[in-house]
Write a structure and sequence with these properties.
CATH topology of the domain at 35-130 in chain A: Arc Repressor Mutant, subunit A
Strand order of the largest sheet of chain A: 1-3-2
Number of strands of chain A: 3
Order of helices and strands of chain A: HHHEHHEEHH
Distance between the termini of chain A: 63 Å
Strand content of chain A: 5-15%
Oligomer: homodimer
Largest sheet of chain A: 3 strands, antiparallel
CATH class of the domain at 35-130 in chain A: Mainly Alpha
CATH architecture of the domain at 35-130 in chain A: Orthogonal Bundle
Largest interface: A-B, 64 and 64 residues
Helix content of chain A: 55-70%
Shape of chain A: globular
Radius of gyration of chain A: 19 Å
Number of helices of chain A: 7
């Protein structure tokens, strides 16, 4: 039986399963299931950074310093590591412009844009359902054991 | 100026912003951006656990032991803690049936079902784009510094 390249690709794709500990897709799921990844993608995807959720200005290139300011509380080490990993994974691209000092900007790739739809949904879900979750916690904690 | 209860609610909702370190929605985003949360929701949402991604059998109640088996590699401590947190947040419900020994089952609430649409997308994204990410890593690592 001959197997074409396309067959092999389809076969390989069907085999990824994040439920399995050893599957590479488990590690990829672990990487993207991270609040800093979610917020970086929301930022580069142009989601409104003000209190009004939902609005989007469309994808935008951003400097490191802009990202650091928008992602309140992120350490320099964490932001640098996360951006490097996302660049290696092909989710974002890094552009160095030889100004003095050099300007480094980050931008979502097409792959990153496809992931942004999901991370945007996660941020919106958290903001939209916060009241419901707070009410659930309150009633859970008040319940007799 | 008088403020109605509905006004206050709308105002409160509009104020949640996960970009802010002190916003409760940041902590909620952190909680849901977690591979075990994603996989628990996929399992209870009935997503196909076999290698074929995409298919879903619909939401289902599952026992602790079934979840532990499906989520390969999860420690008992991590699974227990994650399930407790999700129950407290109102994402899933826990039912104890007085059999001998007692049967404990977990099921998604309506809130959990609304989150499942997103977590399902994350797992599928990881499985569908794995080849593309692997190719990107390879070309990134081969690039001269």
């Amino acid at each position: 039986m001959t197997t074409t390249k396309a067959d092999k690709k389809a076969q390989a794709k069907a085999e990824y399963n994040a439920f399995l500990a050893v599957c590479p897709s488990r590690q990829l799921l672990d990487r993207i299931s991270n609040k800093w990844v979610v917020l970086i993608l929301c930022a580069l995807g142009g989601d409104d950074a003000s209190e009004q959720s939902g609005a989007s200005h469309g994808p935008q290139a951003m400097r490191y310093s802009e990202l650091a300011r928008l992602l309140a509380g992120v350490s320099q080490k964490m932001l640098t590591q996360t951006l490097r990993a996302l660049e290696r994974d092909g989710v974002l691209s890094r552009t160095v412009t030889p100004t003095v000092p050099v300007t480094v900007t980050y931008e979502l790739t097409d792959l990153g844009l496809s992931l942004h739809h999901l991370t945007r949904g996660l941020r919106q879900w958290a903001q939209t359902h916060m009241d419901q979750v707070l009410a659930s916690r309150e009633s859970h904690d008040a319940r007799p054991r």
